[in-house]
């Protein structure tokens, strides 16, 4: 028996003489959060019952989160929780345990027959009874036929045993995964008064579960539309399989902090001189480190990570929920189950963007607005352009709003960076200042048969002190020198007709005092 829980009274199941016979509860709803899940079970209580038993629950359920709901006319008293091996709880054996034992019996029967044939074959090999000349041929033929029959039957038995073992191994692995006969299970006992009977509801939190958002984006370049599909990867290792259950995915964070931190006082005083450092002690032999107990190691060990139908979307005040229309099966083995949550058809502006100072390639960009309804958590996204897979990235709602979403290189737009020209010398009447002039040029060619919109990005120098002066000249004039609100981020946006070449240049004149040493960060 485990120690008493703060919010629960733990009592022995056998100490309550008025307990009704336990009935099987069933899972009626599962809500999965990132890192945890809420499981809801129901149990039909007969009229006049004084206690209800919900057995075969996972050993890892959070007893502090147990909640019981009863209909009108039913009064609920105290809760009791205990853990014990599954083998000691009636009805908690693996559902395929009978099948496992039947297969084991069949394999044992085949093995016994094979041993008998092996003994018969050994006797034939040792057969030395003398025979007359007339009987030699008949005896040899009989031995040959008998040996042949034994060998054929041995081969047949080996094949049959192999087929049975192939059926047995996955069942044994599944039974071992759920804890086997020696694995622990929880039993919840509810003291109640139910003159009319009714349905009792029990909910609890389990860890080792979670879901991760994912996306698929398909760009139709000609129509300038993006089909954005929501997906989810669900996995759980809670200790109980979810079979044919209604599933809801929530963006809520019940494991996160319930409130944020408060500011600490900000005090300012005169700094005191640091005291002199004490002399170093004489070196001594280091004591042997104390071996941590298994409980301490367990507390320090990191917690292991849990491993086309449109869902209904419910927008709450603080979280979004996706209710799947179909029932699902999620085994407790950490395997990921892929689900589709729906899709959106979005209008997009398709353009080509390049930052030639860092990468001499042009990339196809789709700029679009995500729907304001619902939450769009960050997650991996697979990208398709005109039906072809072009790569993977990560969807971040804030970044998509600012820079759009990339769909791979556009090999039909070629960029060439011309050599950078740089001069430096003194300036001013008395040579009191130094000056550097840096010129950059790029050449862009559109090999498409249709016009494209080009965005070319570059960084311009930004002075952080008044005595450092920067003058910049551009050809053609850029659309912005503060792209996305960043000073010095220069953006050209040009319409390139098919088969044309465009040159872009930038000249930066930087001057500073003669005795100043510049520090540049690019």
From TrEMBL:
<dbReference type="Pfam" id="PF13598">
    <property type="entry name" value="DUF4139"/>
</dbReference>
<keyword id="KW-0175">Coiled coil</keyword>
<feature type="domain" description="DUF4139">
    <location>
        <begin position="200"/>
        <end position="514"/>
    </location>
</feature>
<dbReference type="InterPro" id="IPR037291">
    <property type="entry name" value="DUF4139"/>
</dbReference>
<dbReference type="Pfam" id="PF13600">
    <property type="entry name" value="DUF4140"/>
</dbReference>
<dbReference type="InterPro" id="IPR011935">
    <property type="entry name" value="CHP02231"/>
</dbReference>
<feature type="coiled-coil region">
    <location>
        <begin position="93"/>
        <end position="120"/>
    </location>
</feature>
<feature type="domain" description="DUF4140">
    <location>
        <begin position="30"/>
        <end position="119"/>
    </location>
</feature>
<dbReference type="InterPro" id="IPR025554">
    <property type="entry name" value="DUF4140"/>
</dbReference>
<feature type="signal peptide">
    <location>
        <begin position="1"/>
        <end position="22"/>
    </location>
</feature>
<feature type="region of interest" description="Disordered">
    <location>
        <begin position="230"/>
        <end position="283"/>
    </location>
</feature>
<protein>
    <recommendedName>
        <fullName>Mucoidy inhibitor MuiA family protein</fullName>
    </recommendedName>
</protein>
<keyword id="KW-0732">Signal</keyword>
<feature type="compositionally biased region" description="Pro residues">
    <location>
        <begin position="273"/>
        <end position="283"/>
    </location>
</feature>
